[in-house]
Amino acid sequence: MAEKLHFSLVSPERELFSGPVDQVDAPGSEGDFGVLANHAPFMTALKEGQVRVHNGGKITVYDVRGGFADVTPEGLTILAEHASEAA
User: Fold this and answer.
1) Can you tell me the distance from the alpha carbon of 72 to that of 39, in angstroms, rounded to the nearest whole number?
2) Cα(8)–Cα(79) distance, rounded to whole angstroms?
3) Could you give the CA distance from residue 16 to residue 1 in angstroms, rounded to a whole number?
4) Predicted pLDDT at 10
5) CA pseudo-torsion sign 33, 38, 41, 43
6) If we measure between CA atoms, which residue out of 40, 35, 56, 68 comes closest to residue 83?
7) For the chain, which ranges sit under pLDDT 70?
8) What is this structure's pTM?
9) Which of 42, 49, 58, 83 is most buried, judging by how many CB atoms fall within 10 Å of its CB?
10) All residues at 6 or more sequence positions from 29 whose CB lies less than 8 Å from its CB, including other chains
């Protein structure tokens, strides 16, 4: 079984997601990026777009506007200026 990435998506209103996932794709200000378990640490600003959370063959999509993504050895945290589950 592949190792999981711990992912948290937080907006000013609430935490939308927190838990282990297979992969997260996000809209970075310098270009879209994907994060798997054990990714090299980095931090980037986010642009408006969609965060795609891959887990067990299912993809959950969130709309985000602004904020930051922080990849650490512990996982990925997205602090979004605005975030909501996509319709």
Assistant:
1) 8
2) 8
3) 26
4) 98
5) positive
6) 68
7) 1
8) 0.94
9) 83
10) 44, 45, 46, 47
